[in-house]
Specification:
86% of the residues lie in helices and 0% in strands. The chain has 57 residues and is mainly α. The radius of gyration is 13 Å and the shape is elongated.
Length: 57
């Protein structure tokens, strides 16, 4: 369980990258993909930092 908790942040960032690649390969004209991918990447980065600080403390 602890190893899964440590990897939540990178998993969220990976989902953001997948959404970004879907936007690129489908040639969509909507900014919804970009906003959701950016938000997931920022939240994943922040989650990674916060969770790792709490687990090591």
């Amino acid at each position: 369980m602890k190893s899964l908790l440590v990897n939540v942040g990178p998993i969220l960032m990976l989902i953001g990258v997948i959404i970004l690649s879907v936007y690129f390969f489908t040639a969509s004209n909507s900014n919804t993909y970009l906003i959701s991918a950016g938000a997931l990447m920022v939240v994943g980065f922040a989650t990674h930092i916060i969770i790792n600080k709490k687990i090591k403390a």
